[in-house]
Amino acid sequence: MSEDSNLPRSYEEAHLKARPANRYGPSFTFLGVPRANLRRPESIESAGAVILGAPFDAGTSYRPGARFGPQAIRSADYIPHSGYRPHLGLGVDPLGELAVVDAGDVNMQQLDSEPSLQRLMEACRQVAAADAIPVVLGGDHTITYATAQGVAKHHGFGRVALIHFDAHADTGDSDGGLWGHGTPMRRLILSGAVRGDRFLQIGLRGYWPDPPILEWMADQRMRWFEMTEVVQRGLDDCLDEALETAADDCDGVFLSVDVDVVDPGMAPGTGTPESGGLTSRQLLDAVRRIGMESNLLGMDVVEVSPPYDTSDVTALLANRVVLEALSGVAVRRSGEMSH
Questions:
Q1: Which helix (H) or strand (E) holds 119?
Q2: pTM summary value
Q3: pLDDT tier at 110 (50, 70, 90 boundaries)?
Q4: Which of 19, 67, 185, 285 is 20 to 30 A from 233, comparing alpha carbons?
Q5: At residue 116, does pLDDT exceed 70?
Q6: Is 160 helix (H, G, I), strand (E, B) or coil?
Q7: What letter would DSSP give residue 191?
């Protein structure tokens, strides 16, 4: 090999050159935003938000495939990937105004759950410590144990409220083995990272969890808005209550969005679909409000499973969830600066 050859000299060199990248598929960033690398902290020091991929679905209980979610969410758009997305309704460009960068996928091995989650936790802590919002593209919902706790490790255990959109409570206890996408919320509360009385769940419905799990949730003083309540009161009224509770004696909010909170007629590409959910419009309006009306410290979007998607509609929805939440943040910050 010649001295000036650009070819990698070894597998290890090739691996390092490729990072940060999409672990499953070609390497490209979220809608064309600049690339960053957490191994070079200076690459995120000016960022207001940092995209991270968490390609992990080892915790899936039914239909796997969410490991391919980060790549699908990054790519889902019919507009050129220019790193520029002006919001028609709000008059902001969240990608530019927040100086969003993409640090690629965290190295997550499907058969090595705990170390993988620890790496993701540390990545989120590092981003939060740089005064940026970690925006994590999942992956199954197991990852929220790591993402929310990573943010809390920087901002303080018990100081971060969690607003959780989901069809399922994810508070199960699988005989003490708490690694799985049905258990991360129990794990978070037991860790002390998030207080049970500052844990707000919106969109629950269906036939799980069982009564003993609901009793445990009540004992933790969790607040959940089952879809019957959302329909009767209206989503805005429920969200008013959730935001008020989240702001009480907490420094900010972590937002976790499972795409199965949306009716599977509008979001079929997910592992555990449950009929009767929110519309995509309701979800986008809600996450935009959270970005505008709370101090958003971190977020994840999970359970996009491309093998079950139709015409990429679920991946596109997840992509827009990120853009709407960040647009809300951009509006909030521009208002703070004007004062």
A1: helix 113-129
A2: 0.93
A3: confident
A4: 185
A5: yes
A6: strand
A7: H
Strands (E) located in the chain:
49-54, 101-105, 133-138, 160-165, 199-204, 223-226, 252-258, 296-302
Q: Which of 33, 48, 38 is nearest to 325 (CA)?
A: 48
Query: 């990120």: which residue's tokens?
Result: 322
Token pair for 262: 């949306």
Joined together, the tokens standing for residue 9 give 């000299």
* pLDDT tens track for 1-22: 344 444 444 544 444 454 567 8
Label the pairing between strands 101-105 and 133-138. unpaired
DSSP 262: B
SS3 225: strand
Do 87 and 94 meet the contact criterion of CB atoms below 8 Å apart?
Answer: yes
Can you read off the two tokens belonging to residue 71? 């790549």
Question: Are 20 and 105 spatial neighbours (Cβ–Cβ below 8 Å)?
Answer: yes
Give dist(CA 179, CA 173) in Å, integer: 9
Percent helix, strand and coil across the chain, each to the nearest 5: 45, 15, 40
pLDDT of residue 19: 57
Which residues, at least 6 apart from 177, have a Cβ–Cβ distance to it below 8 Å?
Answer: none
Q: Are residues 125 and 134 in contact, defined by beta-carbon separation less than 8 angstroms? A: no
Summarize the confidence of residues 63-86 as an average pLDDT.
Answer: 95
Burial of 291 (0-12, 13-18, 19+ CB in 10 A): buried
Beta carbons within 10 angstroms of residue 262's beta carbon: 29
Residue 52: strand pairing partners: 136
- Residues 222, 245: Cα–Cα separation, whole Å: 11
The conformation of residue 278, written as its DSSP 8-state character, comes to: B
pLDDT above 50 for 206: yes
